[in-house]
Structures are given as C-alpha cells and as structure tokens.
Amino acid sequence: MQDHRPGDSSIPRHVAVIMDGNGRWAERRGLSRIEGHRAGLESVRAVVRAAHEVGVRWLTLYAFSLENWNRPKDEVRELMRLLERYLDDGRIEIDNNAVERAVRPVAVGRKNYLFCGSEEGARRAATLYSLIESCRAQGVEPFAYFADVLARTATASARELVPRAWKAARDAAQAAIPKA
Q1: Which of 51, 73, 85, 116 is positioned for an S-S bond with 56, CB 3.0–4.6 A?
Q2: Is 68 a catalytic residue?
Q3: In CATH, 14-138 is 3.40.1180.10
Q4: Strands (E), the chain
C-alpha cells in the first residue's frame, strides 16, 4: 500500500461504501449467508481502520436497503442481531476503538434516504452524498459546484471536476482578477 499522510491531497475527504456481496461471497465458499455477513463485519473493521490511517475524514457505510427486507426472514433476523450486537456490545472492537471514534460520523440523510429503491439508486445516492459532503468539507456551496460541473462535463476532465480541484481552480481564477 502506498504511504499516505493525513492531509495528502490525493486522499478523498469523504468515502461512501455500499456494503454488498457478503452472502454471495459465503455461498461461493460453501458457507452460510450469515457467515458471509459476519465476515463483512471484519471487512468493515478493516475499511474503517484503513480510512483512518490514510486520512479519510468522513466514511459513510450503506449497509441495509429496502430490498434487503425481501430476504428470508431468518437471514433478516440474523442481520438485525448482528447490527444490534455491533451497536450495543462495547467489547466489540468496532464500537469501542479509538480509531473508529476518530473517524467523524456524518448523517447525510434522514431515514427515508436510507431506502433508495434499488442498488443503482443507492449507488447514485452515495455518489451524490459523497460529492455534497466533499463540497461542504472544501467550503464550496454544492449548488454552485453542481451547476458549473454539469455545464462543463463534456469539456473538462474528471480530475478537474472533483470538489477540491474545482475549488482550487476557482480560487486561482479569483486571485487572477485585478483588484480595483
């Protein structure tokens, strides 16, 4: 892994992760879907630690969609038990570790935003939420950012359009304007 330092401009400030595929992962290995979800918790721990170590300031995990309620009742029940255990048991590392507490939690939507209607909807929402929170972290007004970016998507590179680079270009353009 590349050595990154907190504040490194190549590290995004906000990362959103859609947790998906734990059940399929387990089935391919001949394990129960629940074992896959338990393994997913270990992955969450690793992601949270790595995000902190490289300097990600905000980490959003999308863990349960409306479609998940259609799973077999036993699987949903066990998922809720895992979540409850994760949230309530102070002995579990992810709920009681200084690294995890150092990652600033951000609520990016109300309860109704958790259910995006589909996996693709959740991906789109995660992208939009990430961009909005990245704008806010840079001190950029999200509406102004989106209006400009949508007008320039055909002519600018993706690198130029991330909130940090967008703000730097805007600041440089403002600095170049002669003062009266």
Answers
A1: 51
A2: yes
A3: yes
A4: 14-18, 58-62
